[in-house]
Write a structure and sequence with these properties.
The protein contains two helices and three strands. The chain is of the alpha/beta class and 71 residues long. The longest helix is centred in the middle third of the chain and has 13 residues.
């Protein structure tokens, strides 16, 4: 399955925040921007730190194809 075909991705409850650093926020943002088919992303209940989310959010400022992100 190609990442460019994923329309909805649920990563909730995966303890992503335990090891997430700024690089994680950058990579996640880049992946979301590359996949023009992505409509929904759920990364809720992962305890991702504010700084990581700020980096992620900055990368998504010009993203107009994702309709919903659950954090």
């Amino acid at each position: 399955l190609s990442i460019s075909k994923i329309k909805s991705l649920d990563l909730s409850w995966n303890k992503l925040g335990q090891k997430a650093d700024l690089q994680f926020g950058i990579k996640l943002g880049e992946a979301c921007n590359l996949n023009k088919e992505m409509r929904h992303l759920d990364i809720s209940h992962n305890k991702i730190k504010l700084g990581v989310m700020q980096v992620f959010g900055e990368l998504l400022k010009e993203n107009h194809h994702i309709w919903g992100i659950h954090v």
